[in-house]
């Protein structure tokens, strides 16, 4: 906008950010941590050199239906699942380093089984037994580099890659598989490559 460079810059920044998930922002996270201890989890991330791969307030978001399900807005995965947390974060870090996944917002990560059931999650969801993230990409983002990574390197990472009708993308390291809107591999935006003859 001519004469208003600050507004033009702000509008430009908005166009590169993912859609905002909900009200579970940094402010509400700070309020939540006032009565919830996250120190051991943060220390684990620091020791693994994974702190900051995903902002902590996003990494600890529970299911988006937390309010409907009368649950906590944030949740720390149990310590026995922390190896899976590290595995998924290593994958996200690698995806970022390879420019396969750039700007995104994590909208759901660990869910306890009760919340997962209420939110309509799969009975054996990786959100409850391992560690998975659901994320939003900006409207302009091309998911093909993510698909190409899954096709060529996903099996080595034991990577799950799905996309829901809402547009959310699910990533975990709990099994090499893919799915789309009807939860089958046939509807995935990222089909398996045909074996070369």
TrEMBL record:
Xref: Pfam families? Peptidase_M15_3 (PF08291)
> Which N-terminal stretch is annotated as signal sequence?
1-21
Q: Which residues form the Peptidase M15A C-terminal domain?
A: 105-172
UniProt keyword annotations, A-Z: Signal
Q: Does the keyword Signal apply?
A: yes
Keyword Cytoplasm in record: no
Query: Where on the tree of life does the source sit, at the highest rank?
Result: Bacteria
InterPro entries per record? Peptidase_M15A_C, Zn_M74/Hedgehog-like
Q: What is this protein called?
A: DUF882 domain-containing protein
Q: What is the lineage of its organism?
A: Bacteria, Pseudomonadati, Pseudomonadota, Gammaproteobacteria, Pseudomonadales
